[in-house]
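In practice, a research group might receive sequence data for several interacting partners and want a quick structural hypothesis before committing to experiments. The following worked case mirrors that situation: the sequences arrive first, and a predicted assembly follows.
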Amino acid sequence: MINLVVTIGQRCMFVCQMIGRSGVFLSQILGWGSGFKAPVSRVIKQVYQIGVLSLPIILVSGVFVGMVLALQGYSILSSYGSQEAVGQMVALSLLREFGPVVSALLFVGRAGSALTAEIGLMKTTEQLSAMEIMGVDPLKRVFSPRLWAGVISLPLLAALFSLLGIYGGAFVAVNILGVYEGSYWANMQGSVLFYDDVIKGLIKALVFAFVTTWIALFHGWNAKPTSDGISRATTATVVQGALAVLGLDFILTAVMLGGF
Amino acid sequence: MSLKAQTFVECRHMSFRHEDNAIFKGINLSIKRGQITVILGPSGTGKTTLLKLFCGQLLPDTGEVLVDGQDLSELSRADLLHLRKRMSLLFQSGALFTDLNVFENVAFALREHTQLPEHMIRDLVLLRLDSVGLRGTAQLMPSQLSGGMARRVALARSLALDPEFIMYDEPFTGQDPISMGVLINLIRQVHSDLNLTSVLVSHDVKEALSIADQVFVLAQGKIIGAGTPEQIRQSDNPLVKQFLYGEVHGPVPFHYPAPELTEQVLSHD
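A structural hypothesis for the assembly, expressed as tokens:
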């Protein structure tokens, strides 16, 4: 019994410690680093690594999610005789939920795990120590550009995901299911609001981007410098990243629908 | 010369623990400016840890580490980073940045700490690479180099900013005889050419003693021998002798601490 209490206590202390450490870590990498030009070129390089290289998985998934939404939407809406509204349904689901959430989940799996493994290995092979000993702060040199690159990349990826999804939905609804093309687009245009749907969706993506990149970087930095340690860190990134995205999605949706 | 001018690094009664293990128990040593100091010791005695203490990556639990007269534990992060520009550590693995090619690896510190124009950086990097004989590898990635070449590139990189003090962590481990010879020559040569203070941590007795001016033997958390290579060779400390001549039997036991064999093998409950 006492052992159980002790274990629970230790576990809680460990979690609190981790939260504290990751907070301190975040505050240290939030700075920009010295100068302007060099950091910008580093961020661009990372946007390529994190964002551009994630494009294939994001774009293909976007098309398929849009196509499935059109199929499902059509079968439900047609039972009410309102299959003309399928365009509106596809666009709203993508912009509000599927775009930010699914692309964030894919982002965690594709880019987050890569970041953790990359930084974990840099730590294992003493590259981070080497940098520190050369008088260069790895938090500014290695971590900051990656954080900013993640924050820039994911909202753009989410926007592209929704865009491709809407075209995928149009293909299925119009070319396969025979919905009148004019009503697919007109219904969408009539019901999608720029601030309430598009911007709020992008705000979600921005929050997910920040949190998932932070989680990925922290686990890389905190990884034990062994092969087992890196594998654990990568797993932790994916699990915690995915949970954070879904949990935050609920909170953000509640706040946004609450008339915020 | 004053004491400060003669000594570059000094440890005073320094102790350091890692988790529950006492790694150093009150060590006193001083590294003289302009000399090659070799720290010998069996694997796992914390030789690498000692180098990390010298450059302030780790701080001692008690006692102090002074570098160029400054107590490392009293320096701010910015001062520490500043001090580190004057020193350099060559990691056992080389620790080259795997996402940059050889040229960019050597240029790294120059780009970070100076505002030199591109053509000067290029010349400096090529000169450094030439001095380790690897100018031709400038455009290769670190993964394309052999272990010995990676270590030479790392040496070129650590010399990029003209440090005063350079530390080598096990430079001879895992080298074939040719690159071993090349490395010994290089270490000697850069030491005298650049007027360095060098510290070399190693367990390769023969090679290390051949280039040392001053030797410390480290074992079981203490300094068990100090002096010139000749004095160390003639030491009658049994631990030093066992280490120097690679004897199986001596104060360092063959067996890791364990219960009696008969007790452990014959008990079946």
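Before designing any experiment, note the following. Chain A touches chain B through 16 residues (CB under 8 Å). The first helix of chain A runs from residue 2 to 29.
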